[in-house]
Write a structure and sequence with these properties.
Blueprint (H helix, E strand, L loop, with lengths): L4 H15 L3 H11 L4 H16 L1 H11 L9 H16 L5 H15 L4 H21 L6 H8 L3 H11 L1 H10 L7 E4 L6 H10 L2 E5 L6 E7 L7 H4 L3 E3 L2 H10 L6 E4 L6 H9 L5 E6 L2 H14 L4 E5 L13 E7 L21 H21 E11 L8 H10 L3 E11 L10 E8 L3
Parallel strand pairs: 5-6, 5-8, 6-7, 8-9
Antiparallel strand pairs: 1-3, 1-4, 2-3, 9-11, 10-11
Helix pairs in contact: 1-2, 1-3, 1-5, 3-5, 4-5, 5-6, 5-7, 6-7, 9-10, 13-14, 16-17
Length: about 425
């Protein structure tokens, strides 16, 4: 029997939390496998992302309602309850009894004996939810803000220390909103107006943006983007504006030799290839064979011929690459705190600031390695999708203090803040030039 969007949403949530999968990948894979209506797709997406985003708050409610500790609940039962509580709090047009009945049906399919427990918890929540919600009204205390916004206390503490209290609240508020989706037009195959027309035929409405000439913002879609004729023909790739901006600032030109040191999933490499009009050479390196194979699939679909892929450890110097590249792009592995709107599970991935410091040590190694590869007069573009200084300006400034033949170039360091730069995720970009010898 075909599973409902609510059932699939519970499966997706469990996969993200228990198997540490990325929510955006899981959501796209589930949607691609189903033939849901627009309404069912939206329901599925809203339940998954909403439940993940409010996980700590929802667990707080569940902890009040249940005598059984939340951590000791069977995972599937816990996620049925959390997803149902999320719906009862946020879906005004769906009656509580309908949400409860659907949750009980889902439970009976896999664990009939737990259906009474689920029914009791959710009916109890329906009676008490207004009073319980009043307990969650945030005060200025760290404990209260943590519970209300579903953020670990240490992240809020670090953000307040860096941005200030008011700016931090603005970031927390904007991260509650679902982000817009952006496409990058492949100018090797079509013009933006041709892509807009092709997508419109498939019931997908997009519009151009002011930031990047190739960037299109998704306005409305009657079908999944990756099932469109334009996608299958390689006319576009889904990519965030921050990721596009990194390439735009690096400014690859035809004929150059460029190394993308941590390339997968490959959006930046392919964008550079398009800007270089399939000339020159791009070496796309990554540690993951699986992700490089996925990149090769995108390369074929997009009609790219100037990218070579290589399994490569960006922390280890490969001496044959010394002084070999006009430009080096290092999109460093990071905590991804700037991507919380797209992957809300990121909030719970790190336990403390010290883990970010450990990540920064790897970033510093990678940047030192990048410095060996770029030619005199060449450029390194260092970028992350995170929002705290340990992985951003601290890494760059320490590098510049130790390496006298490098300096900031152009705008130097650019931080894209979603509360200031509309439609952008939190993103950091530093353009570093090696001096001529």
């Amino acid at each position: 029997m075909k599973k409902t969007p609510r059932e699939k949403a519970v499966e997706a949530i469990q996969l993200v939390v228990e198997k540490k999968s990325f929510s955006n990948i899981v959501v796209n894979e589930f949607i691609h496998q189903e033939n849901w209506s627009k309404e069912d797709t939206n329901l599925f997406v809203n339940i998954v992302y909403g439940t993940l985003d409010q996980m700590m708050r929802l667990e707080g409610y569940l902890g009040i309602l249940s005598k059984r500790p939340v951590k000791k609940m069977q995972p599937q039962i816990k996620y049925i309850l959390l997803a149902s509580i999320y719906q009862m709090l946020n879906f005004d047009r769906i009656p509580d009894f309908a949400i409860v009945n659907e949750a009980v049906k889902i439970t009976k399919k896999t664990n009939h004996s737990a259906s009474g427990f689920v029914n009791g918890i959710l009916r109890n929540f329906a009676r008490q939810k207004d009073d319980l919600a009043k307990r969650m009204v945030p005060s200025q205390s760290l404990e209260s803000l943590s519970l209300h916004y579903s953020y670990p206390k240490w992240i809020i503490h670090e953000m307040i220390a860096y941005y200030g209290h008011g700016a931090t609240l603005n970031i927390l508020e904007i991260n509650k909103q679902r982000p817009d989706l952006f496409l990058r037009c492949n100018l090797l195959k079509c013009k933006p107006n041709e892509l807009i027309h092709s997508l419109k035929i498939d019931g997908i409405i997009v519009e151009q943006t002011q930031w990047i000439p190739e960037a299109l913002k998704l306005i409305e879609s009657e079908r999944h983007l990756m099932k469109s004729k334009a996608y299958l023909n390689g006319w576009f790739q889904i990519q965030s504006l921050g990721s596009m901006m990194a390439v735009d600032i690096l400014d690859p030109v035809p004929g150059e030799k460029i190394f993308d040191m941590a390339a997968a999933p490959g959006g930046k490499s392919i964008f550079m290839a398009e800007r270089m009009k399939n000339t020159g050479e791009i070496l796309a390196g990554d540690l993951s064979v699986k992700r490089l194979n996925q990149l090769k699939g995108h390369i074929d679909r997009m009609g790219i011929s100037n990218i070579i892929t290589k399994v490569h450890d960006a922390t280890v110097v490969e001496h044959s690459f010394t002084n070999s590249f006009d430009k080096v792009l290092l999109d460093a592995p990071c905590s991804s705190l700037g991507m919380i709107r797209r992957k809300p599970e990121i909030k719970y991935a790190h336990k403390n600031k010290e883990q970010l410091i450990e990540i920064s040590k790897i970033q510093k190694e990678m940047l030192r390695t990048a410095s060996k590869y770029v030619k005199p007069g060449g450029v390194i573009l260092y970028s992350t999708c995170t929002m705290l200084p340990y992985e951003n300006e601290d890494v760059v400034m320490e590098f510049l203090e130790k390496e006298s033949e490098f300096m900031l170039d152009g705008e130097g360091m650019k931080f894209l803040n979603p509360t200031i730069h509309e439609n952008f995720d939190g993103f950091f970009i530093a353009k570093i030039r090696r001096l001529e010898q």
